Every structure is written in structure tokens, then in C-alpha cells.
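Worked example 2:
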Amino acid sequence: MVYKKYIKRGNKVFGPYYYQSYRSKGKVKKIYIGRKKEYKLWLKGKLKKVKKK
């Protein structure tokens, strides 16, 4: 599952930051994909896959 996260610092909002979550050995883990540009590449499959630890 992919989700986006926003971070609020003071009166400013930063983001979206995209993450992919997956389950490994009964625990939910997440991988940072990037910002909007990297997410679009990830959707097309052109962004290198990150190894799950």
C-alpha cells in the first residue's frame, strides 16, 4: 500500500512525502519513495526498487 504524509512545522505544511508499506514477519514496515516526481517514476516502474530489510 502506498500512502502520502504531510509534515506541519509551525504554520507551514511540507509534503506530500510518499511511502510504501508492507508486512514482513508479522510487522508492518515502510519504505520512503520520495516526493511527487519520484512517486510518478515509481508508478511507471522506472525508479529502482529499494531492497526490503
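The first strand starts at residue 2 and ends at 9. The radius of gyration is 13 Å.
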